[in-house]
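yo

u said u wanted the structure for the complex thing, so here. seqs first:
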Amino acid sequence: MRTPPDLRALAQNAADVLARLRAKTSTTPPRVHCITNSVAQNFTANVLLAVGAQPSMTISPDEIGHFAGSADALLVNLGTFDRERAEAIDIAVASAGAARRPWVLDPVLIDRSPPRAALARELLTRKPTALRLNAGEFAVLADNQSPADFAAAHSTVIALSGVTDTVAGGTQSASLANGHPLMARVTAMGCAASALVAACLAVEKDQWLASVAGLSILGVAGEIAGEVWKGPGSFAVAILDALYHLQPAELAKRAKVS
Amino acid sequence: MRTPPDLRALAQNAADVLARLRAKTSTTPPRVHCITNSVAQNFTANVLLAVGAQPSMTISPDEIGHFAGSADALLVNLGTFDRERAEAIDIAVASAGAARRPWVLDPVLIDRSPPRAALARELLTRKPTALRLNAGEFAVLADNQSPADFAAAHSTVIALSGVTDTVAGGTQSASLANGHPLMARVTAMGCAASALVAACLAVEKDQWLASVAGLSILGVAGEIAGEVWKGPGSFAVAILDALYHLQPAELAKRAKVS
Amino acid sequence: MRTPPDLRALAQNAADVLARLRAKTSTTPPRVHCITNSVAQNFTANVLLAVGAQPSMTISPDEIGHFAGSADALLVNLGTFDRERAEAIDIAVASAGAARRPWVLDPVLIDRSPPRAALARELLTRKPTALRLNAGEFAVLADNQSPADFAAAHSTVIALSGVTDTVAGGTQSASLANGHPLMARVTAMGCAASALVAACLAVEKDQWLASVAGLSILGVAGEIAGEVWKGPGSFAVAILDALYHLQPAELAKRAKVS
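structre next:
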């Protein structure tokens, strides 16, 4: 049923997504509205700015409809789970849906919190364009389904972060082997990955390709940062620098897809 | 009606404001109470500490009166617009007013959110000492008035950030041409500018001069950081280092006022 | 009544605490649940990750019981004092108590806010394992008692930060003379110290020794960062790198206990 992706073409296609993002940066940078946790907000905003997108971050129920409906993509990260935020998520997802904008769900740590898992399950019924999460979080939702089967059943893409990332759509799947071990020693790296998937969805309608592109961009930037790091502090600085300088040709060359 | 400022004197006067701030740093650093958005809090606190001021950041309605009334200046940034924060702003502005403390309004992204614009308009009637904002935000409030006319009508100063900054008081105006393009690729840079204006207002009663000083300090620090940057991550680090080391004589020499 | 600690052994014992933390890092890193202020969240999370612990940060009353009860230690920092957080603190302390987990109270700026001081006094009756604070904050609680008498009266440890740190238990006390002046020019450094004390309490039951270890680790890392700093921005980056690389033997050698 599943067509094996043309891997030689895939890295180039991911690079084309980055090229499209960059082409818009100086004129109309795609805006990603981020409902994200307070630990991750600053780093996520800087990751988006570094790659050439524009972040907005309000979570106020009174105004989030205006922001989410006019954004080019929406990120819903459950890492802070206060009551105002839950209300804001509801409005934002409705607003993005009405405006037919892509949105990414990042169900942070649902494996530790039953109320958060319940919210993630409910949000899943509202058709996120992509889910970015780790294996522990996926297990809570998956009921032993494979990523590909789960993606097919929910008309979404599963972007599963790990030592090797897996990006599974309903009909195709890829493994991404870039990245650096130190990415696990800097907070909000997964949240940043989700934001980059959202940024790519803003310029690429194919939800699977956009997810491959988003995770590849971060993985390759991490690899480049890993060539100069002296520890997790300087690594976090270097990955922002790498995101800023990353050229599509270098992404195509370095992306380890299989 | 408007006296052209003595530009040769102006850069030196801005440097004197920085010298006054520095003189107090080791003994009684001016405290700036910041009601600011959660994306900007950490960077804003570090900018204030780097330049030699003291930040405080609570937004709790239960205690903000104590903090704002005893601070040397108050910053009200609308970048996060939750309900508790709106209540806190009301108390803090009243408390600063009663204690005759200067306060700065930064109406972040009011061009994207009608409820936020409505709050900004209401706060304008409460006489902020200075408004720091960008052109899109100013247009929402200005009703086609020029910055100088608007400043005169509201007894305030308009500190307008852009490629060239404009600082317009009721009777005088200056352009500031320092800064670096990468300042637009690091989040919370505008918020930091507003915090620096507040820090300068804590040591300089002339609200126009304090605003010129605040924006010049950041612009020159950005220029210095731009001499060593490798990307937006290292630029954000370098601007904190530059703020810490910036000497009044160097500010006077580098400030491009006209 | 008070036994003078064996200082030669103490530095080595602190190093052993770090060794125990490091031994768990790659398999079961101790998780520290942090209720901390929004200014400090990101830096605190990165400090914990750098040293090899695992942070979690939710403050939602709906789920904090799950997080705090399953964590290896709890940090309660009063630096943001909103209503939801006060409710979360109540639940988290009860949950940590029921699971017999150690917890650290950091009563940030209670010298500026009577409502916050009242909350700190109430939390003190709930037996924090350690209190990490500065002299101004301690004075609000101490009623002229010495740190050692106060610690004895409340069955806790007072970890008092200053140019020289004092760690006073009911029966023993030590002074720590590491650190760097620039630690006062980076926000959330005290909050990070409290988080490190919590991380050490997760692997060391002796609450006095764990507190000595936590403050020594940060002080020595600050000293190392101070050897390469160019300003507060690069210092904050370097201290994360130093925490990551710090070896128990180096801690034992550098720790200036007396």
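The interface with chain A takes residues 38, 41-42, 45-46, 49-50, 55-60, 62-63, 66-67, 70, 84, 236-245 of chain C (CB under 8 Å). The longest helix of chain C spans residues 7-25.
cya
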